[in-house]
Amino acid sequence: MNFFKKAPTVKEQQRQNDRELRKAGRDLERDKVALEREEKKLEMEIKKNAKEGNNEGCKILAKQLVQLRKQKTRIYSANSKISSVQIHNKAMGANIAIAGAMGTTAKTMGNINKVMNPHQIAKDMEAFKQANAKMDMTDELISETLDDIMDESGDEQETEGIVNQVLDEIGIEISGKMADAPSVSRNKIASTADADKELMAQLAKLKS
């Protein structure tokens, strides 16, 4: 004898219950059919005794018929009860399945809550926010420092060359525009130069 036999699961027990209930229903159905056959025989016997005028025999058979019909009623009632228990057994199995699903869901939700701890998430988000702000500040500081270093170590001549190039480009543009200016301006400049020469000549005469 195995004292360590594994206990059946709820689902296995439910299936066993269902098998036993179906077997009991089949047994009762066979008994009912047998009683119906016996009922017909009794009815025929009662009719036969009545025709023969055997009143005493009719009474005895009639009592038997009453008992038989009562037994049939019990079988109908038992069958109804078995059907009810079968439905209850199936409903219980469904409820157990639902309960198991809810248990699994609750466990899953618990695992999710462990992984997605709202307090920890909020803490991590705040840490990310601070780290990101610090990184931005650090990046800005490094950029400014690099700019200062580059400015200090830059070649002044190269810088001056770039400035002169820009000024030359502007000068070329200005020269181009000046070339299109009216000749009056050029005449004015020429007359000013002649006046200066004349003044210098007079000064030379005075000295001699």
UniProtKB/TrEMBL annotation:
Protein name (database record): Charged multivesicular body protein 2b
Residue span of region Disordered: 1-28
Species of provenance: Iphiclides podalirius (scarce swallowtail)
Biased segments, Basic and acidic residues type: 12-28
Protein family per UniProt: Belongs to the SNF7 family.
InterPro entries, alphabetized: Snf7_fam
Pfam family, one: Snf7
